[in-house]
Design a protein that fits this description.
Layout lengths: L4 H10 L6 E6 L3 E6 L7 H5 L6 E5 L2 E5 L4 H12 L6 H8 L5 H13 L3 H19 L10 H4 L1 H18 L2 H13 L3 H12 L6 H4 L9 E3 L4 E3 L8 H20 L2 H44 L3 H18 L3 H14 L5 H21 L4 H15 L4 H11 L1 H19 L23 H25 L21
Antiparallel strand pairs: 1-2, 2-4, 3-4, 5-6
Length: about 500
Amino acid sequence: MGKFKEDAQKLLKEVGGKENIAAVSHCATRMRFVLNDPEKADKAAIEKIPAVKGTFTNAGQFQVIIGNEVSTFYNEFSEISGLEGVSKEAGKAAAKQNLNPVQRAISVLAEIFTPLIPALVIGGLILGFRNVLEGIPFGFLDGQKIVEVSTFWNGVNSFLWLIGEAIFQFLPVGITWSITKKMGTTQILGIVLGITLVSPQLLNAYAVAGTPVADIPFWDFGFAQVNMIGYQAQVIPAMLAGFMLAYLEIYFRKVIPQAISMIFVPLFALLPTVLAAHIILGPVGWAIGSWVSDVVNAGLTSTFNWLFGAVFGFMYAPLVITGLHHMTNAIDLQLIADFQSTNLWPMIALSNIAQGSAVLAIVFMHKGNKEEEQVSIPAMISCYLGVTEPAMFGINLKYVYPFIAGMIGSGLAGMFATLFGVRATSIGVGGLPGILSIVPKYYVPFLGAMLIAVVVPLLLTYIFRKKGIFNKIDPVDEATGLLYSQEG
């Protein structure tokens, strides 16, 4: 008998049987099911299966956390069920049957930005390190910055900007490529389109505000003039242009004979898109993006910024559950493009820390529960490094009260950071390392906010559990007064 045969049989039964499975696949740690009727899945029974470390539903997929041996489990599940797996992408496509139009839009947004996350993370780390080199006057250096006293580190700082510029200023190239990848169209055309938005031939987007209107270069077509303006770091213009390119290519593939499609499909898709990008889509997208960033920035710098910060900090974790948090990536990037920094990202990093601290409290209170520690300890570490899903879906939402404690801690930390005007120069680096993204002059208040995000969830998680607040399934042993886990 295979190692997981019995557990696989139980899982097949509790998800509603073979007839309830529209598609099944797996990733690095999870089984991913697209269920015909999600209500037939008995989550409580599934989470009691020894091999299962937790469950959650995301983007229309019912996901079962197995761990590093998921591939072995998956093979035995397939043998027992007689179901052939599908690719992860095919699974996502099938999952759309369980999504409403708003969820589908959010899913598309997530699929565009997810491939860009590795670049955004490394870019954020690099810009954060450059903050230390060129932005902080050190007392032991007589108030000078590192780049002012060291030729070597000045050279390193200058060299690292090569990577930072490639990631953030040329972000539209990544966005247009990601859209063509997601839409199944020609990716090199997406790359070419992105380059036309950030070409050195154009006036850099960062220089537009300081350039008199009369000095802005333009293309003169005789009957019309088009400004030669670049869209460095702009998100919405790139997205609008990327989708136009993809849909034009899909359309022309259908109407142009295959014998000449290699020539005319790229021509008729790319040329009109580039024209539209500089005449209509770019200016409109810039205006929309600027309006959104102005509204968010105004809210976070207004008299009531403390309220805005508290609400956003409190609500960010629930946004992650729904997938709506992917929208904040676009807003953050637009804020950086318009104001050279963002006041939104610091609160996201603080939310990561707060949820991680809630898990840390669970680790201490459930000490000795070896089975749960296989999930809780890695999830806590992941959270402190900026990835919250394992912690929220594996622990905090399971018990509810640590999730709420994390939300409250995040809200208070967000309010504190907002009151002090904390801003970040980049995104992508969350959790404890998120301090590397912070503008150096805000390091001290951000450290204060981090302390709040650690201490408040720790204390509230303990209090909520002991007093039974928001806690229905994780009781205290009344005989001894000790905290214990129902599963321990």
